[in-house]
Amino acid sequence: MRLTLTPHPTSISISEFKRDAYCSASEAEPTKVKKKKKKRRLRMEKEQQEVNVLTTSKFTWTINNFSSQVWFKFFYSDTFFVGPYSWQIAILPGMPNIYLRGLLVDRLYAGDIDNVPVGSRSLNFKLSLVDQLHGKSTIINESENINIHQLKTGVDVVSFRVHSDLVFDRKNGFLVNDTGIVVAEVSVNGLGLDHDQNHPCSVMKSTALFLDFRGLCKMEKDYVQLLENSCSKYPSLIESHRKRKRSQRFNQLSFTKLGKLLHFLKTKKVKDMKSDHTRMELQDLWDEAEIRFDDLSWLEPHVKSALTYFENAAKVEKLKANVVDLEEKVKTLKADAIAIDAVLETTKKELAKAEEGFVEIDLDDQLGYGIP
Known about the structure:
Helix content is 42%, strand content 21%. The protein contains 10 helices and 11 strands.
C-alpha cells in the first residue's frame, strides 16, 4: 500500500536557482509570473541561510483505513529524501503492540559517503504518532547525533512500540475516522552547497525502488509512469529542464515533487479533501511543484478544484438553501396576494352597492327638515 507524504526539503542546491531567480522581469510581465519568480527568489534566499548548517525535512504519513491493514506484517510509507539519503517510515500493526520504525533505505551518493571525514556528518531523527484530537499528547521517540557512517541501509534509525489498546481507544485521538498520522522529522548536518555538483544522480546505487527517467535522473518507480504520461502530453516539462542544463540531483528533486503531486491526485478521493491536513498536504505539494516548473497551467485547475471543492460545495449548499427559503416566501406572498385580491373584489362590490342612491352634497348645506 502506498500512502502520501508531505515533504519539505531544504537541501536544494542554491546554484540551481540563480539562473532564473535573478533574471530581470519586464514591466509588462504577467502578475502571476512575477509572483512566481518572487516566491522562487525568497525561497532561494531562505535556503542560502540554512543549507550550510543543517538540512531538515518533515514528512507526514497519513494512513487511511488503518484497522483494515494486514496485521503482523510491516507496511511502508513512500520513500523520501533528506540530503544524499532516502528514508522510509514503517509500521507493524499487531497485538498487544504496534511498532513504528524510521529507517535508512539507501545512500544515493556512494562517493559522498566516502569523501566526508568520519564524524563530520550526523543525524537527528524524530518519529511521532500524532494525537489528532488534542495535539499535545503526541507520542514521540527520537535519536540524536547518530553517526551516519555507521548506519546500514534497512536498519532502524529510531523505533518505538505503542500498546494497541492505547492507539485504538478513541478518546486518545491517535485514530480518527480510522486514519492515523505518523510524522518523521529528519535533520542531517555537514551538507555543503557544492554537494549536488560533486555527486550527481548518475552515481546513485542501483535499487529496485528507482528507475531511469528519460536520462534526466533516477526516479522512484511509482512516479515514473505518471511522469511519462504527463511529459508525453506536455513536453515543455522536460524541455525546460534540459535547456537549462540542470544537474541530475535537481532534476530528481523537481520531478519527485511533481510525481508526488500527480500520485496524490490519482490516489486520493474527493472525500479525503474534507481533512484540513490533507488540503494542507496538497497545497504544500503544489507550492513546491509550481516553484520548480515554469508552466503547470494544465494541472492547476485540478489542484484548485481539489483544494476548494468542499468550500465551493458549502457555498453552493448555502445558496441552494437561500433559494428554497426565498421560493417559500414567494409562495407565501403569492397566496397572500390572492387572498387580498379576493377581499379587494368584494370590497369593490360593496362600494358599488353603497354608492347607489347616494348623492354627495356640500358640507356647508343645511340638513333641512321637509318644510320649504
